[in-house]
Structure formats: C-alpha cells, structure tokens
Amino acid sequence: MAPHGKIILAVGTKNPAKIEGIRRAFARYYKDVEVRPVDASQVAKAQPRGLDEMTAGATARAKHALSVAGGEFGVGVEAGIFTIGDIYFDNQVGAVADESGNVSLGLSAGYILPSEDMERLFREGKELERWAEKVSGIDQIGDKGGFVSFLTKGVLSRAGLTEQCVVTALAPRFHKGIYGL
Description:
By secondary structure, the chain is of the alpha/beta class. Helices cover 42% and strands 26% of the residues. The protein has one domain: Maf protein (Alpha-Beta Complex). Strands 1, 2, 3, 4, 5 and 6 form a six-stranded mixed beta sheet that branches. It is globular and about 45 Å long.
C-alpha cells in the first residue's frame, strides 16, 4: 500500500519500545507520523492476565490517549499473559481508537513461558517484567528489546511485537466494508 500523508497519533504509553513499534506500524502506511505519548498507566492493570484484561487495557489506553492528546487515532498496546489449557503465553494486544468511538484490535505473535514460574509469579502478585529481569540479567528489559529479544537471541523484539499487533489492528480500517467501520 502506498503511504498516505501525515497522521497524528496519541499513544497510551511512555515505553520507548512500544512507541517505536507503533511508529513503525503507522510508517508502513503514512509518510509522516507524529506520535504524542501519554502516560496511561492509571487506566490499565499493571499485570493483565488473559486476553480479556489485555484487550480492555489496550482499549482503555487508546481511548485515554486520544482524549488527552488528540489526533486522528489513539493507540494502546497491552502486553500480558494468557493461557491455553495449562500453557502460559505472553503476547501483546493493540487497539486503535478513533474519535467516533470505533476500536479495532490486533494481536502480536506470542511465546511460551514456564508454567511453574508463572504460577508462582501470580501467587506472589508480581509482574512478569521483574521475573524477566531476574532471568535475563537485563535491567528495565521491557523498555529495551523485551524478554522476547532475550529468548530469541535478538531475532524478535518488543518493538517488533508491538508493530505486529498495531498492523493487525489497522487491517480493519483499510477494509471498512468487511468490518463495518
């Protein structure tokens, strides 16, 4: 798709890796991307568990950012943990909100996490990022390449997963007739 002109985005995060992923996603479709980061930590859970909580967090971040900073779209991304049976996965949900209140959603690739460690993490009420820092030895891993970068030896990154979930959240906006937007 040929890039469109300029777009202004309100993004519900101050996380550098997420901001970069959002910018890269929109740069695939727009020549000039202005990003307005907004602290939206107060509208989402610190450690969402399950796709419902992740989706609610991403949507709340997108709507909050748009209401605070304005722009054509509000974008929210929420990383979290979900299960399939007794297997734990980490992935990201992206939400793109417009001024009409329409929200489109997308997901990133997910990766497996060790079940015993995740069960302990939830029992103790801790966040995945603290555990990932301990396992990887990388301080503030979530603001950098993310745990996925450590696991994949740099092949994937948090910014890349953010880009994936935002691109898939944008897809319905390019096919409004199919999705009824």
